[in-house]
Amino acid sequence: MGKAIRNHELPKKITIDQNGANTAASKHDNRTHKTAIVIRHSKHLNNLIAQDHRAVKRVTSPMLGFKSFWAARCTIAGIEIMHAIRKEQLVTTGNVPQTPAEQFYPLAA
């Protein structure tokens, strides 16, 4: 969590599951750094993000890993774009419906 705070700004709220270690660590962090981060306990709110990244995990799990951060970033960006196209979240231009491949090719070029 410290790394996330260093790379982004201090959150107002965090949502964690009922794990006692997470709760204790978050409370200790609040006391040590004198912050007022609200701790919410929810078993299911974290699942929304995990469910959305399931497609990325399914594709990248069989891979042997990435040799560079750049390669990982480019590969995962392509997977995310294909996932957005499949979920019809990408806005298309024109009235003619396009296949997912027809939407992806101009983005990849």
Put the structure in a nutshell.
The protein has 109 residues and is mostly helical. The protein folds into two domains: 2-49, no CATH class; 55-108, no CATH class.
Largest beta sheet: strand ordering: 1-2
Number of strands: 2
In quaternary terms, these chains amount to: single chain
C-alpha Rg, in Å? 19 Å
Low-confidence stretches: none
Fraction in helix: 55-70%
- How much is the average pLDDT? 79
What would you call the shape?
Answer: elongated
Q: What share of the residues does DSSP label as strand, in percent?
A: 5-15%
User: What structural category arises from helix and sheet content?
Assistant: mainly alpha
Number of separate structural domains: 2
Number of helices: 6
Major sheet: 2 strands, parallel
The N- to C-terminal Cα distance equals 37 Å
H-E order: HEHEHHHH
What are the main properties of this structure?
109 residues; mainly alpha; two-stranded parallel ribbon; elongated
SSE layout and pairings?
Elements: H1 2-7, E1 13-16, H2 20-33, E2 38-41, H3 45-52, H4 54-60, H5 69-86, H6 100-108
Parallel strand pairs: 1-2
Helix pairs in contact: 4-5, 5-6
Task: Please give a structural write-up.
The structure is a single chain. Helix 4 packs across helix 5. The protein is built from six helices and two strands, in the order H-E-H-E-H-H-H-H. The chain has two domains: 48 residues, no CATH class; 54 residues, no CATH class. It has a two-stranded parallel ribbon. By secondary structure, the protein is mainly alpha-helical. The protein starts with a helix and ends with a helix. The longest helix has 18 residues. The model has no long low-confidence stretch (mean pLDDT 79). It is 57% helix and 7% strand.
